[in-house]
Amino acid sequence: MKVAVTGGTGSWDRGVGPVVISALKAAGHTVTNLDRAVPGGIESHGFIKVDLTDYGQTFAALHGHDAVIQLAANGEPDWNHVSGAARFHVNTMIAYNVFQAACHLGIKRVVWASSETVLGFPFTIPPTLLPTIDEDAPIPTSSYGISKAVTEDLARHMSRAYGTTFVGLRFSNIFYDTPGHVTGYDRLPKFWADPMAKRFDLWAYVDSRDVAQSCLKGLEADVTGAPVMTIAAADTVQTQTNAELLAMAFPGCQLRPGTGDHATLISIDTARRLIGYEPQWSWRQIIGN
Predict the structure, then answer these.
(1) In sequence order, which residues have a C-beta less than 8 Å from that of residue 169 and are 6 or more positions away?
(2) What is the pLDDT of residues 137-163, one digit of tens each?
(3) What is the pLDDT of residues 15-33, one digit of tens each?
(4) Which residue, among 40, 61, 43, has the nearest Cα to 51 in the 3D structure?
(5) Which of 19, 60, 195, 284 has a C-alpha 20 to 30 A away from that of 99?
(6) Cα–Cα distances in Å, from 267 out to 27, 38, 255?
(7) For the whole model, what pTM was predicted?
């Protein structure tokens, strides 16, 4: 297929786009990167510089593609309510433009990046039962999380109206096998020493290569409509057991029956069932413990 990847250049700390593009090319797809940021500062074949908040530019850039992987968004934290408002505006506008253009161009499959943040992170209201499941109602608390929850609704409406399939992937905290990276595996020991530092997302993570795997499977899966599903590693980042973590961070919270001592606390069962996702990478393979 000819696949457009929005936000494929990535930023210094959120660089999953290039990993996804490499995996798509390895699988035999022809890929176009649609982004404002030019990879390496040099425009070349397979790249279109585009402002995705502009519908005309978005429509033109998507023309001729068979599928879209929508990664483009502003993922910064809410530094204040002003930046939060701008983030919500940009993220929802990009999503609408990409989705609307895809529908009217006859593109039948859009795989897009939702987020674990829709599940309630940073859990200022403590959970009472874990792992989370994708059937739980979204309870986002930040402008970024709210923009993703709104986009999940947008995908459902667009799919109903136009028949396009939208596969929403709720990515966990993406880690890279790159020493020194802001989310490199060499940073994990600080979480082992201070488990509360990653309480905010239930000690979850996902390897960048498994993100790419999930995008490929989302393109190929026999699904329709606008399903959403969590994409995470099969385990937590911690050396402590889940029982120890919950006793420390969420006293009174119960574990669902059958949850392993180190199993992810944001369930990936929906992704396993719908698209055949199965994590291939764990921090234990990379730095061990």
Answers:
(1) 111, 112, 113, 114, 211, 214, 215, 218, 228, 229, 231, 271
(2) 999 999 999 999 999 999 999 999 999
(3) 899 999 999 999 999 999 9
(4) 61
(5) 19
(6) 27, 36, 12
(7) 0.96
Domain spans in the chain, listed from the N-terminal domain onward = 2-122+133-177+206-232+267-280
Residue 87, token pair as written in the block: 């983030």
Above pLDDT 70, what percent of the chain? 98
Helix (H) or strand (E) holding 168: strand 165-171
Question: Residue 215's closest CA among 277, 135, 258, 173?
Answer: 277
Place of tokens 């798509």: 24
Sequence-distant (6+) residues with CB within 8 A of 155 are: 99, 110, 112, 166, 168, 226, 228
Please answer whether residues 265 and 218 qualify as being in contact, where contact means their C-beta atoms are separated by less than 8 angstroms.
no
H-only helix segments in 40-116 = 55-62, 81-104
